Structure to design on (412 residues):
């Protein structure tokens, strides 16, 4: 053990002549412990919500989406798309025709986004788990059906139990709208509601799912045209190589988006919020660490005789400074160790028993928690660095106390 560490440890745990120094030191360590504990818990909760949101989106979002770089619709014929279908990394190749339409149901009207999907989508996705009324079914025999978001269904007073058809209107492509009879310039199809789904409010109030062939008829597309292609990867945890291969096959005329690019703004918000809360709590830890400055400054003043003795025995300024820096850092490290252990314990209890419940009617009962060791490392490194820097500030008093200690030894 280094001499400076040994002496600093004795100073930290030994009884001082002024008990207030011990009290301030313990308050400092306790404050840092609370700050570290809060950082671990809050960052873990953000991780839990992040994983929850990603898992929810993964139920209905593809690993990759192909969209045209220009325009709205494109054809999936050609050698490039045939190669993509045959690629071993592709689990499912889903064709989608999507656009905004006007729709009416009984006496109610609304604008929604129609998403025409094929039978592969119906078979491979987990949309069935989020049906709150009826069932996820695109066709009943030869009759096309629709699955509607819950918010949209509520606004239209729509239910799968009713036999009223949902009327969908879309302008004919390449045709001017007739001012005499505007309805003659619109394509119209009828679909019958088969189910109502609920994912999140933004999705529930926007989307209606119908069969792909019905969507093509409504949008005036041929049997090969789509607005996007969704690709489900064989290995969803390693999509990057597949994305590079697809981009190379298609060239510059198409955009290939992974899950992050499909919801770039949402993921940026999650990261920004997590960074913001980390910086706020780190600032609180900095304020709490000022107590370390106070206790260390008082300790240097109290130990000026010891400083004089050590100097007369040949101890250099570097050694004596290291003693007090090490003690200040020990206070911070003690708080970090206690805070991290408490934070991890609380996170474990929340994961295991769900002690703190979510308010309201949410999709999960308790707050989600996910501990990531990178976050623990960042917390320890950040608070440890703050503790070290705070411990060096009181050294501005060191020279004066060293001279006073030497003078008192000379007088004695």
């Amino acid at each position: 053990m280094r001499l400076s560490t040994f002496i600093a440890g004795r100073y930290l745990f030994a009884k001082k002549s002024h008990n207030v120094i011990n009290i301030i030191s313990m308050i400092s360590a306790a404050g840092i412990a609370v700050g570290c504990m809060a950082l671990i818990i809050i960052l873990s909760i953000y991780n839990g919500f992040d994983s929850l949101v990603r898992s929810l989106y993964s139920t209905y979002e593809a690993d990759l989406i192909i969209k045209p770089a220009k325009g709205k619709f494109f054809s999936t014929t050609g050698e490039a798309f045939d190669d993509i279908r045959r690629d071993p990394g592709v689990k499912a190749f889903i064709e989608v025709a999507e656009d905004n339409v006007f729709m009416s149901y009984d006496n109610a009207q609304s604008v929604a986004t129609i998403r025409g999907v094929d039978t592969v989508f119906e078979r491979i996705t987990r949309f069935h788990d989020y049906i709150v009324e009826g069932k996820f079914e695109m066709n009943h025999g030869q009759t096309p059906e629709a699955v509607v978001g819950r918010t949209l269904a509520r606004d239209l007073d729509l239910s799968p139990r009713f036999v009223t058809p949902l009327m969908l209107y879309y302008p004919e492509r390449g045709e001017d709208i007739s001012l005499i009879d505007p309805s003659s310039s619109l394509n119209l199809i009828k679909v019958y509601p088969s189910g109502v789904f609920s994912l999140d409010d933004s999705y529930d109030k926007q989307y209606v799912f119908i069969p792909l062939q019905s969507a093509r008829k409504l949008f005036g597309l041929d049997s090969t045209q789509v607005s996007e292609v969704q690709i489900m990867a064989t290995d969803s945890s390693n999509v990057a190589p597949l994305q590079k291969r697809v981009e190379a096959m298609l060239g510059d005329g198409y955009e290939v988006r992974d899950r992050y690019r499909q919801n770039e703004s949402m993921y940026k918000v999650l990261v920004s919020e997590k960074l913001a809360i980390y910086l706020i709590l780190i600032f609180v830890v900095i304020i709490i660490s000022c107590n370390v400055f106070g206790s260390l400054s008082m300790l240097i003043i109290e130990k000026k005789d010891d400083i004089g003795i050590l100097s007369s025995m040949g101890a250099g300024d570097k050694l004596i400074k290291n003693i007090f820096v090490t003690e200040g850092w020990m206070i911070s490290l003690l708080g970090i160790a206690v805070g991290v252990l408490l934070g991890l314990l609380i996170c474990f209890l929340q994961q295991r028993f769900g002690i703190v419940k979510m308010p309201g009617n949410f999709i999960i009962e308790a707050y989600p928690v996910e501990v990531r060791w990178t976050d623990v490392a960042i917390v320890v490194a950040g608070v440890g660095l703050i503790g070290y820097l705070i411990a060096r500030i009181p050294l501005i008093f060191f020279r004066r106390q060293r001279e006073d200690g030497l003078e008192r030894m000379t007088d004695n």
